[in-house]
Amino acid sequence: MSERTYYVTTPIYYISGQPHIGHAYTTIVADVLARTARTSRSSFFLTGTDEHGQKVAEAAEHAGMSPQAWCDALVPRWQQLFASYDCAYDDFIRTTQPRHERVVSAVFEQLRANGDVYRGTYEGWYCVSDETFWLESKLIDGNCPTCGRPVTRLTEESWFFRLSAYRQRLLEHFRANPEWVRPRSAYNEMLAILEGGLEDLSISRTAFDWGIPIADGSGVIYVWFDALLNYISAIGWSSDNAAFHARWPADVQLVGKEIARFHTIVWPAVLMALGLELPRLVYAHGWITVDGQKIGKSLGNAVDAFVLAERYGADTIRYFLLREAPFGSDFSYSEEKIIARRNADLGNDLGNLLNRSISMITKYFSGVVPLSTATTFSDAFTTLPPRYTEAVLDLRFRDALEDAWTLVSGLNRSIDEHKPWALAKATDDSEAQARLATVMYDLIAGLRWLAIMLAPIMPDRAREMWHQLGFTDDIALQSIRELQWHDLLPGHHVGTGAPLFPRLELTS
Ligand SMILES: [Zn+2]
């Protein structure tokens, strides 16, 4: 574990509104990455909530509460959602925590001292819903280009971040690192924005006071500037903190494509101004849609994310989200599609395979896996575990799962081809008995691999699979990369258990 800690972040979620499946999706992906990385090195997974800004202040006022009390009341809802999807984050940061506010104030003062933050006058259009400023030229029919809502004209004295001064360095970074923003569509879009020119960014507000105050009383810090700094405040930013430098730069920062601009243009410029390295990868993923419409706070089209977890189980949804579409693209989900994946891939292909294999070992070998140094498998699978790990850590989850399922199919095919029940009847044919032993060994060896490989994606079901296969040590501590086919110890006894993925039908 001498390598640097693997550091993955989700966006901190804007607390105004209810958490939905889109938030769960991003957080699940971060969880899968952290769990996978952890099988070979230390990892750190950060999520949290973005709690300042006018929209939060207004929502709190509407509810007759103070903004802080309102945030305190909502945070558990987010934490419950992530718990219901088995997301084991290492830290949950809230932007109203003193540890965060201290860092934001210190960054602001440092940048003011070195001239990256200066005083000016702001004139422009503001979308309260997105807490975003827009140039007149970006408005669509006079409305916000992101959400379509009306915008407000603002003229005020403001602090500015000298974003334009970093344009050249950003361009150089983009051109030298074409993979630092993915997918390629997001990279191209952001590069085009940079090529079109950058304006300095207003980073203070005086119209309302729900934010981190500026020391001289000249307003509060713009919520986006505040929020972006969570990625370094949570890990204790300061120039002499060794723990901070063991984690920064982040390996992967996950964002929704609608906030790619802040994360790939503003954020790296702030990091450059602070003399910090840029994240290795910012991944701007697509949206989960229902009937082609983005799931959002204002769209009542989404099945409640809590209900989905309860109805299908966290692991089925986790598998579905990663398997259904290549990560990065938009995709439309429906309960029919979830059930189809659940019953086919998980129930028929994997669950029945486990069930049949354990029954046959129990029946033909009294539950003890026969030792075999041979295999009925070609070498095609030898490189599967490292290849699979590589694909997961490269966020090619669908490819990884398709690859893993070639092993699932291979094992199922082996049963069909070798017909163990026929071999078992040929009791005085020693060749048949040896082949039966090999086929049985292969099934358990392959299922053992699958349990370990799938554990980051389906932690609960993989653990159950592990126990049914008769293992008692901690599945999360098994290294995926180092898996060997002939790792099983002599005398290994399989366990028992109920079907992993009982068949489901569409309700209502
Ligand atoms: Zn808007």
TL;DR?
Helices cover 46% and strands 13% of the residues. The protein has 18 helices and 16 strands. The chain is elongated, with a radius of gyration of 26 Å.
CATH architecture of the domain at 334-487: Orthogonal Bundle
Strand content range: 5-15%
Which secondary-structure class do the elements indicate? alpha/beta
Main sheet makeup: 7 strands, parallel
Radius of gyration based on Cα positions: 26 Å
What is the class of the domain at 334-487 in the CATH system? Mainly Alpha
Distance between the termini: 50 Å
CATH topology of the domain at 334-487: Isoleucyl-tRNA Synthetase, Domain 1
- Determine the number of helices (DSSP H or I, runs of at least 4 residues): 18
What is the average of the pLDDT values?
93
Helix content: 40-55%
* Count of β-strands: 16
- The H-level CATH homologous superfamily of the domain at 334-487, spelled out, is Isoleucyl-tRNA Synthetase, Domain 1
Any idea what the shape is?
A: elongated
What small ligands are held by the chains? Answer: zinc ion
Q: Low-confidence parts, pLDDT < 50 over ≥5 residues? A: none
Structural topology:
Layout: E1 6-9, E2 13-14, H1 21-37, E3 43-50, H2 54-62, H3 67-84, E4 91-94, H4 98-113, E5 117-127, E6 132-134, E7 152-161, H5 167-176, E8 181-182, H6 184-196, E9 201-202, E10 204-205, E11 220-221, H7 223-228, H8 230-233, H9 242-247, E12 252-256, H10 260-273, E13 282-285, E14 288-290, E15 293-294, H11 305-312, H12 314-324, E16 331-332, H13 335-365, H14 384-393, H15 397-418, H16 420-425, H17 430-454, H18 459-468
Parallel strand pairs: 1-3, 1-12, 2-3, 3-4, 8-13, 12-13, 14-16
Antiparallel strand pairs: 5-6, 5-7, 7-9, 10-11, 14-15
Helix pairs in contact: 2-3, 5-6, 11-12, 12-13, 13-15, 13-17, 14-15, 15-17, 17-18
The chain binds zinc ion.
